[in-house]
Each structure stands twice: as structure tokens, then as C-alpha cells.
Amino acid sequence: MNFDFLKPVDEALLAYAKMQQNQSLGQSIEIYTSQSNLPEVLNKKIAIVGVEEGRAAVNNYGTGDSFNEVRKELYKLFPGNWPLSVVDLGNIEQGSTIEDSYFALKELLS
Question: Which among 13, 27, 41, 79 could bridge 84 via Cys, Cβ 3.0 to 4.6 Å?
Fold first, then answer.
């Protein structure tokens, strides 16, 4: 399947993830960047993806803009004592129309 609509995680954010403690999510997840291929999602338990879409947000200006800040906090977390396989697929870029963004998300989820 073609996932050209996915924008990789910024390299600076990857460096931030790798600076976290050894047992943290930032050290243990696969992250899609411009320097790596799209990670395999088969057999993964959790996939992180941002959707850069906020045109239908009511009273919530800026929705779809701050994924790097959310990722920084996620990368600091510890998964606990259970087998957890996580992949960060980056962001779905805002489409020409809101329907385009929804279509891209639907394609990714299917």
C-alpha cells in the first residue's frame, strides 16, 4: 500500500528520543524518519500517528499542530513489565480538503 501521505518524524526529535533513559519508549520504539524506511507494522501492538488536520475543530484552534510536543512526552514514558511493541509512523499531512485527510487516515487504519 502507498503511504506517500505520511510525513516522517523530524530527525531532531529522533535524537531527542535516543537521549532518553534506556528503558524508555524513546529508546525502544521504531520511529519513521527521512533516513529510515517506513517501519513494519505487522505484529505491533501500538502505532503512533499524528493527523495534521484541524479544519473541523470547533473552539479548538491549533488542533493538528503540536505533535512533536506530544511525542516528547510519550518518548519519556516507560512501558512497564509487559511485552510492548510500538512504532511511530510520523504524521498524515493535511490534505487539499478535509475529506482527503480523512481518506488518508482511513487508508492507514485499514
Answer: 79
Q: Is residue 65 part of a domain?
A: yes
Instruction: Name the one residue in this structure whose C-alpha cell is 502505532.
Output: 47
Residues 57-105 pLDDT 10s:
777 666 666 788 999 999 999 988 878 899 999 999 999 999 999 999 9
> Cell numbers 528520543 correspond to what residue?
17
Question: Hey, is 69 helix, strand or coil?
Answer: helix
- Domain that residue 72 falls in: 6-109
Whether 101 is covered by a domain: the verdict is yes
Place of cell 501500538: 46
DSSP H or E segment with residue 105: helix 98-109
Number of domains in the chain: 1
Determine the Cα angle at 63 with ends 9 and 94, to 5°.
60
